[in-house]
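Render this sequence as a predicted structure.
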Amino acid sequence: MTIDPVTASVIHGALETITIEMGHKLMRMAHSSIIRESEDFGAAIVDAAGDGLAESPQSTPLQSGPIPGYIRGMHKILAARGESVGPDDVIMHNDPYTGGSHGPDVAFIVPVVVDGAIVAYSATTAHHLDIGASSPGSCGIVDAVDAYAEGLQFKAIKVVEDGKKNAMVWHMLRDNIRAPDLVVGDIEAQIAASRIGARRVEALIARHGLAKFEAACAALKDRAEAMMRAAIEKVPDGTYRAETKIDGFEGDPERSELPLVVTITVAGDALTVDLEGTAPQVPDRPINMPYEGTVDIAIWLTIRSILLDTAVEGHIPVNAGLVRPITIKAPKGCLANPIFPAPTIARFAPGNQLADTVMKALSQAVPGRVSAGIGNLKVIAFSGLSGETHWVHMEIFEGSYGGRDGMDGMDAVDTLFANTRNNPIEDIESHLPLRVSRYELRRESGGAGKWRGGLGAVREFEFLADGGFAIEGEGHVFRPWGFAGGAQGLPAAVTAHRRDGSTASLPSKVPYGIAKTGDRFVMTGPIGGGYGEAAARDPQRVAEDVKDGYLSVADARRTYRVALTPTGEIDAAETAALRRA
């Protein structure tokens, strides 16, 4: 049936509101800070075929975006077993080779049922703080040799079947994870949020009728596709190529300085992204990226953000229609399309660099709509034992954006496809034997440009009890790229200060290690790349950066050719002379 645009918009607004409610409910019910504070979760409504209809805008793109792939993967696995989803089932799924983003991001899927038939799905995903891997926590498992070393694999498992809990599955969960109360509490919160979404969609369909609901969903997907095609059509036809190298495992020639290559071909209202030339998969280290669940999301999110910037275009409906004009190709067996059982749990930081490489390629086509190179973030798993009980904390240590036309890069934020938040110090110190003794913006000159790169943060943790740590990150070796004459940014760093007085600079990936009471770890965040020539920066902005303590008087003079008086005012005559020279 046909549907008028007003009714379609009403249904679309209702779907978005449902996903927002799901997200807020999940945050309120969650036990762990990674969901409650960092908001590392996703919530979405997906149709029966696996097409995304709406996703929670306050959640993480890398969590909500893959949910349609989780649904398709669930269908594929169940069909291979000769099984199907029942109206009263709840499915648990986390398989990175059938739609999952990586093992710790577990989806809980609840059917939307009308007259006994499944017409859609309500699903949440969230990062869980332990998944039964080889070492505590669910990040920093950077020495996993295969998928089996990364933790429990849930391939379309019915945790609730015909309305009844599958008790054996829940026993297995509790017996194979280190923080069972925390993790199972988060799982129950996810299921409750997914059920809320399903009931809300059922009520929406009851209000409008199934035929009108399905017609609205089809119209909304067509509208999103038309918007993306119109945006692509404005990009000059041609081929645009960029390459980035990732740290990998420093000091290991076969596992370090690995290239990510992106070639974008624009033809009319369609666009192809080819990853030919990207390094082969690393068979025994987990920096490989699932093709569906990480690679596709990194590419789609970046293209959507650049070509359909909400600051320019206004609200953009996020559904399956947006990705129809985009084709992705990746050679089987490369970092961006690994072959099972290659490990993938540490896929986050390489995926962020892939998104940044897509940005770099598009900078050749639409230079005014991109930012310079991003400073990648990292995650640190802190853990320990209190008697027989594990405590686990996942610290998301933020990165920074590069400058862009008309504005400086954002300081100390998560970047591109992540969108998570850091943990408040009050929350950390009230729940964990950790002290945050330093938290400030990095005060060094880097990423200079007409629009400077964003500043990273400096954050110091001290262990108040014996425990352990592991680090998963990128960007210690290669600096964020500058654009249009802007300077490169600065790399990140981690320094360990042991209680015996020794100090060590750590690489971007560190497998689980022992920490003693009094050990301190200082994380220094990256500075994003600069956009445009530094000497073209407004002297007033330079003076403000000096007053704020972000830049020294000497760096203002040397880097930006801006002279300041002893009181911090601009010396206009000397500045003009410096810039002429």
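Summary. The mean pLDDT is 96. The chain has three domains: 5-223, 233-366, 371-537.
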